[in-house]
Amino acid sequence: MTGASLGAVALLVHDYDPAIDFYTRVLGFRLTADIDQGRKRWVTVAPPGGGSALVLARAEGDRQNAAVGDQCGGRVFLFLETDDFARDHAALTAAGILFEEEPRHEPYGTVAVWRDPWGNRWDLIERK
Question: Assuming Cys at both sites, which of 36, 48, 72, 121 could form a disulfide with 76, CB separation 3.0 to 4.6 Å?
Answer without folding.
Answer: 121
